[in-house]
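Now for a specimen:

…
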Amino acid sequence: MVSLNRDALVEKVIAGKRISSDEAVGLYQFPLEELGALANARRDLAKAKSYGGRGRDIVTYIVDRNINYTNVCNVYCKFCAFYRTEKDEDHYVLSFEQIDQKLDELSAAGGVQILMQGGHHPKLPLQWYIDLLHHIREKYPHINIHGFSPPEFQHFAETFQMPLREVISEFTKAGLGSIPGGGGEILVDRVRKRISPLKINSDQWLEVMQTAHELGLKSSATMMFGHVETIAERIEHLQRIRDQQDSSGGFTAFICWTFQPRHTVLKVERTAGVAEYLRTQALARIFLDNIDNVQSSWV
């Protein structure tokens, strides 16, 4: 640990006080069982404040579905096994009818939300997206459209030659309900230049979130880890998320998951295992004291 009083740090966590980045480095070295217990203590504090003090007795969930409207992308992230170019035989853009089928299945299962994202398609026009949002909103008014990640919005602004704020505003008017935190990866540009050099940088990702929150949209925040980043860089990512939440207050949840190397070109010495995932999840719960919901990922 970095010259920290261990007992004082434990007391600080249990009391619900904010911890520093240096303290987070120290916490990460705790035995997993103890770190998990401290994270659970912070979870209990958060739940006790919710639902008028009844949060410990209430568990909620929603039924939703992922819809990836296209796999065509021109940023070629090294960690991604999903993207295709227009020359690949298995590239696609879903038709509105295909999207309707997925939404019909979701509705039949009691679903209330879709997570809709896609690649950076170089040729789809603005009107395609606007028409899609109008179509879903009119036909499925009970389903929230949680769609289009910050890199997609930056891609739209550049491709359609529009101010970012105007793009987000137009999408919101057409029916967009909230924004997912995709494309966050690690909000440290040293890392981003290695794994996704053509994608937006850290400041741009945060700018999209700041703008969306100013326009009244809520969003999630994410982290994809276990590749080329250091532990300190994971904590720097959490610090930037926490600082953004202090500024704009629009994050409803944080979700982290581990890098999945199969069928990607990103070569790493080792990937994160189960214990490292749990350790990072626990640290996020403790560090992100201003985000109520810390979700699990089913990757």
The first helix runs from residue 6 to 14. The chain has eleven helices and seven strands.
